[in-house]
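Protocol step 4 of 5: obtain the predicted structure for the target chain.
Materials: sequence only (see below). No template structures provided, no constraints applied. The aim of this step is simply to have a reference model before the mutagenesis design in step 5. Sequence pasted as it appears in the construct record:
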Amino acid sequence: MSSTIVPKARPSIHRTILEWFATQTPGKVLDAPAGYGHLGMKLQQMGHEVTCGEINPDIFKVPDLRCIYTDLNREIAAAANSFDYVCCVDGLEHMTDPYQAVSEFSRVLKPGGIGVFSIPNYSNLEKRFKFLLHGYLTKPTQYDAYVRADRQLFDFHNSPLTITQLDFIFRINHLEIIDIKRNAKKAKQNLLLPFVWLLQLLNVFNSGKSKKKHATHLTLDKKVLLGGNNLIFITRKSF
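Step 4 output (structure tokens):
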């Protein structure tokens, strides 16, 4: 049965997150949105105590894991400071209120706990060039597709967050980015290396004030500029 439960997100995202969790002490984990339950199932097999949340729990397929209805735009049905880890795989971009979602994740996370968030990499060079050409970060949502989805907004990318927006949302909710991982390298992005070098060279001549203002430690991070389709943020709750 477990072999038939696959990731709803890109398999490389789950693989990267699970490799990170393999180095951590087992604890209480919230996985939301849980999708089909693949990540929660694997974390349970690692010895974690897993709670799953999903806005569409009918799609959840793991029989021995409890999955509760969870609309991250509103609230998580859990007490404050109740989880050692929270995981949100490709969820924030689907939120109509990602600020509320991160606020709720932070609320239920214990002080010193770890939040793991994956999100499409809207800040890599490939996306920046596409924005220059097309004027959007994510493909326009077609009204017909919205109707076919029974007018459920959670099926669409409603909040294409850049890395500076995401960092701000984390910071105001007491989450500090301690590591950034990419789900996979894209060989074709090596063709953009000259642009990376140019941007980093130009940044050398910026003042410290300018670098801070434009958050170049994030926007010019090579993992971000040449990252794959997704980035995984490891964050820690300060208090």
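Step 4 remarks: The mean pLDDT is 93. The chain has one domain: 2-123+136-186+228-237.
Proceed to step 5.
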